[in-house]
Amino acid sequence: MAPPVISVVAKSGTGKTTLLEKLITELKKRGYRVGAVKHDAHNFSIDHEGKDSWRLTQAGADTTLITSAGKIAMIKQIPPDREPELSATLADYTADVDIVLTEGFKRSTMPKIEVHRRRLSKKLLCRGEHHDPSLFAVASDGELDLDVPVYNINDAAGLCDLIVAKFLSASNTHGK
Question: How far apart are CA 64 and CA 60, in angstroms?
């Protein structure tokens, strides 16, 4: 059974990563195994020029694994014009967790929490020009009148209560 996937979305600089860190920490405190996926619209690199793994990839390895006690990383070459489908990536790499939190993927249909800061925008991505039915909560630094629950941007415990109730009930978990 695939773990539930929740995406944290917002405009750049709003605090998606900060909220994700808090949610991960809170879920881990509660005993859940958490996967995290960061969407990067740019060509990221975890490999660094001159390092052995970089050299192996540059030599033409289609897949390079870096292993050590406690960690494993993989660099898999794909055609530059073909971003992998999220569902396939999740199926391949997250079967061993209870929940996956993603950063980004705002155009997806997966359940979403939107982060909102008044100083950056009055409009929400999911309740602005387009009504995204997958939005189930908002984390904001101000009061909002919405059709979904609105949490204080620092209330990770409250958001986790909602996540657990909605997605990690006893019938939904597979590893806890």
Answer: 10
Q: What is the pLDDT of residues 14-33, one digit of tens each?
A: 999 999 999 999 999 999 99
Structural domain spans, the chain: 5-43+81-167, 45-79
Higher-pLDDT residue of 93, 100: 100
Residues 86 and 109: beta-carbon distance below 8 Å: no
Token pair, residue 8, equals 């944290």
- Torsion angle, CA of 157/34/6/64, rounded to 10 degrees? 150
- pTM: predicted TM-score of the whole model, two decimal places: 0.85
CB of 113 within 8 A of CB of 137?
yes
158 or 105, greater pLDDT = 158
Inter-residue contact 9 to 112 (CB < 8 Å):
yes
Report whether 114 contacts 125 (CB < 8 A). Answer: yes
Written out in words, the top-level CATH class of the domain with range 5-43+81-167 is alpha beta
pLDDT in tens, 38-91: 876 656 667 778 888 888 888 888 888 888 898 888 888 888 788 778 888 888
- Scored b (16 or more CB within 10 A) or e, 139-172 reads bbbeeeeeebebbebebbeebbebbbeebbeeee
134 Cβ contact list (under 8 Å, min separation 6) = 108, 109, 110, 111, 112, 126
